[in-house]
Amino acid sequence: MKNSVVFGGVFLAWISVFVCCFGFQKVHAQNSEKYTVRLRADYVKIVNGDAYLNIKATAKIEDETLPVPNIDITVYNEVEDEEIVLGNTTTNMKGESRFLLNKSIDLKADSTNTYNLGISFKGNESFKKASKSTSYKDAGIEAKLITKDSINYITATLRETATDSLLTGQSLDVQVQRLFHPLKIGEDFNYTDENGTILVPIEEGIPGVDGNLIIEVVLNDSDDYGTVKAIVNAPVGTPIVDESTFDQRKMWSARNKTPIFLLIFVNLTIIIMWGLFAFLISNLYRISKN
């Protein structure tokens, strides 16, 4: 009987140890799980300006897609099965980064005049390694302002740079720069004709600072050419009347522009209150003397 009790206690002890070890291994496996990073790279070119890659890193964590901040991304040029490192960049708190493709970077294209770029993340304690490739051909937009029959137009021509060939049937967006969201003008889809050109009228009455409009002609997220943008300064807008009272003495102006009457009133009130306190204190002093 005694041996049975001892055997039962030892058996229960072994079961407890097994359950604890299994639970610890399960928790450890859950805590050591690495998430998969999803990378995205979009090519953007500003005519007569910068060209760059817009990079974004996200991960699906607990059924929610979240940005992955503060990870190092390597950018490289893929040429004939060779990866030429161009540099590194780090994502911000939104999981985004912009890698400039400066003129000092010697990019090489393949036999079809296509540039093949790749981005990669080596992985860390929380995320698995990941990579992404993007390809594009170089294109340019020649845009300008013209006037025809007293009507102002934006005309733009789209060409492939390497072959200097006109690109037909491509949709270009024409829009006016605004603080939060651009103002689109023209048709929803402005397709280039057989000369690779579009002609879009500019509506009258569009307000602009000093009558100047900053108009963008954009080839947006093309599979072959990425995003290409040309900017035209057009002095054809309606001048904005500045009704700002920031430099005037108003209640809602800056502190150094406080209205005079308010300064006088507040200071007089303070002087009167302190004078009253001084009068009362002097009377109390006289009473204590007497």
Describe this structure in words.
With 290 residues, this protein is α+β, with helices and mostly antiparallel strands. It folds into three domains: 37-137, Immunoglobulin-like, CATH 2.60.40.10; 139-239, Immunoglobulins (Immunoglobulin-like), CATH 2.60.40.10; 245-271, no CATH class. The protein has helices spanning 2-31, 260-289, and strands at 37-46, 51-61, 64-67, 72-79, 82-90, 96-100, 114-121, 130-137, 139-148, 151-160, 165-166, 171-176, 183-191, 197-201, 207-208, 213-222, 226-234, 238-239. The radius of gyration is 34 Å and the shape is flat. The N and C termini lie far apart (104 Å).
What's the SSE blueprint?
Elements: H1 2-31, E1 37-46, E2 51-61, E3 64-67, E4 72-79, E5 82-90, E6 96-100, E7 114-121, E8 130-137, E9 139-148, E10 151-160, E11 165-166, E12 171-176, E13 183-191, E14 197-201, E15 207-208, E16 213-222, E17 226-234, E18 238-239, H2 260-289
Parallel strand pairs: 1-17, 15-18
Antiparallel strand pairs: 1-2, 2-3, 2-6, 4-5, 4-7, 7-8, 9-10, 10-11, 10-14, 12-13, 12-16, 16-17
SSE string, helix = H, strand = E?
Answer: HEEEEEEEEEEEEEEEEEEH
Gross morphology: flat
CATH superfamily of the largest domain: Immunoglobulins
Please tell me the total number of domains. 3
How many DSSP E strands? 18
Helix content: 10-25%
Instruction: Just name the CATH architecture of the largest domain.
Output: Sandwich
The secondary structure category is alpha+beta
Count the helices. How many?
2
Gyration radius, rounded: 34 Å
Largest sheet: 8 strands, mixed
Strand content: 35-45%
Q: What's the overall average pLDDT, rounded?
A: 86
Distance between the termini: 104 Å
CATH topology of the largest domain, anyone? Immunoglobulin-like
The CATH class designation of the largest domain is: Mainly Beta
Low-confidence parts, pLDDT < 50 over ≥5 residues?
A: 1-7, 17-31
